[in-house]
Amino acid sequence: MPDDAQQVMQKLAARRRLVDDWSGFFQEVAALDEFLALEDPELEAELDGEVSRLEADGEKREIQTLFQGPYDERDALLSLHAGAGGTDSQDWAEMLLRMYIRWAETRAFKPQILESTPGEEAGIKSVTLQISGPYAYGRLKSEHGVHRLVRLSPFDANKRRHTSFALVEALPVIDDDVTVEIKPDDVKLDTFRASGSGGQHVNKTSSAVRITHVPTGIVIACQNERSQLQNREAAMRILRARLLERKLQAQQEEQAALKGEHTSAEWGNQIRSYVLHPYTMVKDLRTGVESGNTRAVLDGDIDAFCEGFLRQQAEKRRQRTN
Fold it and tell me: What is the pTM of this model?
């Protein structure tokens, strides 16, 4: 109960800050409008600067109005999986991991790796990380899908061009306040000794956990935390998110069937291409948003792609309501 009350108070405080922030913005706009009405030449240069500042602020605030999903304000879970292509794809998955961590850090968000499986020679086979921050899921849901890389392979002795793929799954972090039924009898819990870094502790205790959801066959393993309880909580957090994803997907398919429309049941459609050779370009295949500065994108500058996706979704909602 105390934890529930704390969560409610935190959400209430966040909404109060949002309301106060918008109120302050509208007050600034009203005050500026009054000064502009004076048409004072001596204030012209100063007011021009204020107009530019508020216009830029307004553009940033416009993005907030695009968060219409029920879970957009929540933290995000990102799972990255190397695709076909062996070491190149595993290295590509690790490059994407770095990109999302850098993106989170530049926004003062908190990235936390919950589970990872390293590649045989380099990179990672898979990794799950949680990114905590305001509207983290609302922004990162744009990343859900297959990401394609074209480059000269650093693992090819002949320096030939290779194409690599990695799947990114974006899910909201689901707290206990969201109804996702998980019966205790439906969950099988196994414990084992963690592997990898962590000192003597990982070798002496069975702190790693593997949770199997029997009805769906979903398996979640976590070993990055020091205690079995922490790993179990992290695994259950991921399980709730995956079960919610299935629930929402089933609802979307049912709605599409009622409308007589066809919808793909696959999440893994290719969404973005990153080309490093023979030219440099990152292009989102859904929205057409592109950037020639591939280094900046791989360093975490992905906001243009996230916002392009949000605007596209908003336009689709507008067309459906007309």
Answer: 0.73
